[in-house]
Give the backbone structure.
Amino acid sequence: MDITLCCSHTAIEPWLDGLRAALPQARISAWHSGAPQADYAVVWAPPQQFLDEQPGLKALFNIGAGVDALLKLRLPPQALVVRLDDAGMAVQMAEYVCQAVIRHFRAFDQCEADMRAGRWVARRPLERSAFAVGVMGLGVLGERVARSLAQFEFPVNGWSRSPKAIDGIRAFSGPEGLHDFLAASRVLVNLLPLTPETENILNRDTLARLQSGGYLVNVARGAHLVEDDLLALLESGHLSGATLDVFRTEPLPVGHPFWNHPRITLTPHTSARTLLGESIAQMAGKIVALKRGEAIAGVVDPARGY
Ligand code: NDP
Ligand code: OXD
């Protein structure tokens, strides 16, 4: 069995070493133009040339959960596209989102600024029951995030394509459920995949439907958000702030208005990192299962886009 690795922006040696240790019977190498045909590929943002030169791949393993960039390429039609299925990302995402929501709810930024300025100000706590959090996307990451927020006793709403029943979460679904979901939420957490249906979904119309004083946490993809609409709603006061981990252009360009915005907290696409050990164990297990003809989880439906 031959496995080829083609991962942009990634130090490839640890992946080669890890996969060789996990699959000692396989021939595993870094792809170069003219390399022999492989059975399986491990990829992150591969160039089109890689796919054109590997038409016989049986499966492509993406070393991330989001496959939006991969699905824009011309893929070998028979190749399965397999996304990372948690692999240690769900707990990180839950940590990140809970800290962003709690930091806003408890006004910890203002607290810190007050203390640094030598001001001893005890602020009145907000009403938790009036601080409903809406999670868009109830998949591998979104469901974990929604359940974690519910542990802190926030009212939690969730929105997905298909109807869900999750204990402690008020579930909405489909385009017909979107407006009610937004109207029931004060904080909006985006954990949708980027697809033609969800691109630009965080816009003036949707964000304006959040309860007054609303707050946005975008941890999915930058192209979900219409940036000028967020800035306008912050300016108008309808939204009180945002925490953004992902951007249309990454790294965020110098001079972008988000950099110094007093009510936007930024992180560099770091809310849930791909973990080497967990990811290799998951991919190696799935490659072995495919070799045995068994079904695996995390296979992307290209028509759906996730
Ligand atoms: P999943 O595919 O497991 O879940 C996607 C969820 O979105 C599902 O609940 C799905 O509904 C819902 N959904 C999809 N399309 C629509 C739609 N049109 N309307 C309503 N709901 C929809 O993805 P993950 O939870 O694993 O990951 C989500 C995204 O998070 C990734 O695609 C990636 O972009 C981003 N991500 C960001 C990271 C970061 O560091 N910032 C790290 C990892 C991921 P249904 O359940 O009905 O299918
Ligand atoms: C992912 C990401 O999709 O890192 O896994 O954004």
In short: The first strand starts at residue 2 and ends at 7. The CA atoms of residues 25 and 158 lie 44 Å apart. Residues 65-66, 89, 137-142, 159-162, 191-195, 197-198, 219-221, 245-246, 269, 271-272, 306 surround NDP (ligand 1) (CB under 6 Å). The chain is about 35% helix and 15% strand.
